[in-house]
């Protein structure tokens, strides 16, 4: 029962004051001068005032509200270590049983750390989950919070949390845990291909562990060295980036006995390899309409250092002048083709034919350069079919096709062969999807016999137009027409000469993206995506090994000619190994070196400051104690409801605050000066006054 008195005046308050104020003044004057009947007049005035004020007795029926208590359960991956999951489940069950005894508590259980989003799995963010649990609760109704966690919380505030209620933390694990981990201190995002890259790393042990340990260094899955590292000190590391694009540098140490987990015994760095400027030697033969096409393309690429020589004197012009007197500067043949030939990434002969400019022995040097990993491109014209063809030199061993001596002058549309539709150099070439192709015609093809390698484009009468071949460790490309300049000049709408020429050059220089047989994998969020480039009809499924060692397969579906894709949703953060046939690939799913695994030793330190600031406590679940209640192998404190001003923690108990808030359900009104009772009292007072005044 909640009784209260309220006034509901019959007239407005100003009017009420205007009426009662003079009467009250007269009554007080009478009392002051002790006039006869002054007391009766004052009593009559009070009765009149009470009638006008209309007092009402209110009886409110209220329902007490419950205090909201949040139980935040840490379900992050570090909680899967050892007995922590079991301890967490037992503690949660015990708390729910204890809290269920108190009707004044509204218990909300919130599980954090199991989000599907990769960015939310990298850290244990319990205070963010706590804020969400209390978002619709007024501050006066917050009874407190209990966190069941290993203590590795990455969003813990340094001071008091945003709610004024006790925060208690129950820590899983035990205080005897040990773990050794490795991490990168300094890892650049980019590195030059083939050049040393300076990095630093650190091995960290538990409880200021000292000593040294072997560190295995791997680049793209292949071990390159074993370093000796001093525990606790920053160690230098030098690695060589093997290729352009994404490279994975991995450090690994052996687990020690009784170590919590070996998940953080590995650290990786993702480094994008960048090539230094590519060095290209372009040698142009006799002047022709498309002579500058290759030059303009290569000069427009800022990543290419071009050395270009042009033979301006046609062979039929013979006037007896020595060839070494025909140029403004001497052609440095020995320097280019003997001393520094290995420095070039690509050599291009554009309509070049054998002359006395290059000694015959130098062609053998060029063939050897290709065999040992160099790249050669032949842009052939009619001279390739003539008597002075470079096919009649020692360079013939490096060429993919010998000329027949035939030059076919016939209009045709360059078309992709069946192999060309799959080959990364010509696959998806702009304009190739229509028939005829959406580009201009060419008018000359050089006849060849017994072509080797892969014919990815065909010309008139289905003759080979573009050949790509491997010779030893190097590569050779051959264009059997000199009509590509028609595309560059926009004849009949032109064609994709920049796209095609650039792909050819980069394939010859072994760009990974243009490999015919290539397997790549990448992590996007918690999704592992696999891409397989192949010239075959079906590469088969991909085999996957997860960071924990589990094996699985993923079916690869054809996305376009020569490209097969597959994907799988993963639950583990770490390095995945992907295989298909003889090809291997590595991919890291989730954030690199996520904080969730940086330090996995359970701790009370991170939550101690916010807990003590709110009057709460931090205690371990696995401690041996005779004071608490032992449930399922964990020691749980008793739960005690406390007032807002009382202590909220003790040696064997934790306190949760109760609220004074309530909800009004109904109100009973009883007028005190209404009806016949009020009328009778008013008449009695006035009659008494009249009687006394009449005597």
UniProtKB/TrEMBL annotation:
Ranges annotated as spanning the membrane: 12-32, 39-58, 672-691
Keywords: Membrane, Transmembrane, Transmembrane helix
Keyword Transmembrane: yes
Statement: the UniProt record of this protein carries the keyword Zinc-finger: no
PANTHER family documented for this protein: BLL2462 PROTEIN (PTHR37947:SF1)
Name of the protein described by the UniProt record: Glutamine amidotransferase domain-containing protein
Organism name: Mesorhizobium temperatum
Upper classification of the organism: Bacteria, Pseudomonadati, Pseudomonadota, Alphaproteobacteria, Hyphomicrobiales
């Amino acid at each position: 029962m909640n009784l209260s008195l309220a006034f509901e005046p019959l007239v407005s308050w100003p009017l009420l004051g205007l009426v009662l104020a003079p009467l009250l003044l007269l009554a007080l004057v009478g009392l002051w001068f002790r006039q006869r009947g002054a007391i009766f007049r004052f009593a009559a005035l009070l009765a009149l005032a009470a009638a006008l004020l209309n007092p009402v007795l209110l009886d409110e029926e209220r329902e007490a509200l419950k205090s909201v208590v949040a139980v935040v359960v840490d379900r992050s991956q570090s909680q899967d270590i050892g007995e922590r999951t079991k301890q967490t489940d037992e503690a949660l069950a015990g708390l729910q049983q204890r809290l269920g005894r108190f009707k004044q508590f509204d218990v909300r259980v919130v599980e954090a750390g199991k989000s599907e989003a990769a960015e939310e799995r990298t850290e244990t963010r319990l205070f963010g989950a706590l804020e969400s649990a209390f978002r619709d609760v007024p501050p006066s109704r917050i009874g407190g919070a209990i966190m069941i966690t290993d203590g590795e919380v990455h969003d813990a505030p340094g001071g008091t949390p945003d709610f004024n209620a006790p925060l208690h933390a129950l820590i899983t694990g035990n205080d005897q845990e040990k773990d050794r981990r490795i991490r990168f201190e300094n890892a650049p995002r980019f590195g030059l291909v083939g050049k040393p890259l300076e990095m630093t790393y650190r091995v960290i042990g538990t409880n200021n562990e000292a000593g040294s340990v072997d560190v295995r260094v791997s680049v793209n899955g292949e071990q390159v060295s074993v370093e000796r590292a001093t525990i606790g000190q920053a160690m230098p590391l030098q690695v060589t980036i093997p290729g352009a694009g994404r490279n994975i540098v991995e450090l690994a140490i052996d687990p020690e006995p009784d170590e919590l987990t070996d998940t953080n015994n590995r650290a990786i760095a993702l480094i994008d390899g960048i090539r230094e400027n590519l060095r290209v030697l372009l040698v142009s033969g006799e002047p022709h309409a498309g002579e500058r096409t290759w030059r303009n393309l290569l000069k427009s690429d800022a990543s290419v250092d071009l050395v270009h020589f042009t033979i301006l004197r046609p062979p039929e012009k013979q006037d007896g002048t020595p060839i070494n007197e025909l140029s403004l500067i001497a052609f440095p043949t020995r320097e280019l083709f003997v001393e520094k030939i290995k420095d070039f990434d690509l050599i291009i002969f554009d309509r070049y034919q054998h002359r006395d400019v290059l000694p015959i022995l130098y062609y053998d040097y060029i063939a050897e350069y290709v065999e040992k990993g160099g790249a050669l491109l032949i842009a052939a014209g009619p001279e390739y079919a003539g008597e002075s063809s470079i096919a009649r030199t020692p360079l013939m061993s490096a060429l993919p096709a010998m000329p027949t001596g035939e030059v076919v002058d016939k209009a045709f549309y360059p078309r992709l062969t069946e192999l060309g539709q799959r080959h990364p150099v010509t696959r998806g070439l702009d304009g190739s999807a229509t028939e005829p192709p959406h580009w201009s015609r060419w008018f000359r093809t050089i006849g060849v016999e017994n072509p080797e390698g892969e014919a990815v484009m065909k010309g008139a009468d289905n003759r080979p137009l573009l050949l790509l071949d491997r010779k030893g460790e190097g590569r050779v490309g051959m264009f059997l027409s000199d009509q590509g300049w028609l595309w560059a000049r926009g004849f009949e709408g032109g064609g994709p000469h920049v796209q095609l020429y650039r792909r050819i050059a980069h394939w010859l220089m072994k760009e990974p993206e243009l490999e015919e047989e290539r397997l790549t994998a990448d992590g996007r969020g918690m999704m592992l995506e696999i891409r397989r480039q192949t010239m075959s009809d079906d590469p088969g499924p991909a085999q996957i090994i997860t960071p924990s060692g589990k094996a699985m397969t993923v079916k690869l579906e054809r996305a376009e000619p020569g490209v097969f894709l597959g994907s799988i949703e993963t639950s583990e953060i770490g390095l995945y190994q992907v295989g298909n046939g003889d090809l291997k690939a590595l991919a890291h799913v989730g954030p690199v070196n996520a904080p969730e695994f940086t330090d996995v030793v359970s701790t009370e330190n991170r939550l101690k400051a916010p807990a003590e600031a709110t009057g709460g406590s931090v205690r371990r679940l696995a401690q041996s104690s005779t004071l608490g209640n032992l449930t399922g192998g964990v020691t749980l404190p008793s739960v005690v409801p406390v007032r807002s001003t009382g202590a909220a923690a003790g040696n064997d108990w934790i306190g949760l605050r109760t609220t004074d808030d309530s909800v009004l359900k109904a109100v009973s009104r009883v007028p005190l000066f209404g009806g016949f009772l009020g009328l009778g009292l008013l008449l009695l007072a006035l009659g008494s006054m009249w009687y006394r005044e009449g005597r």
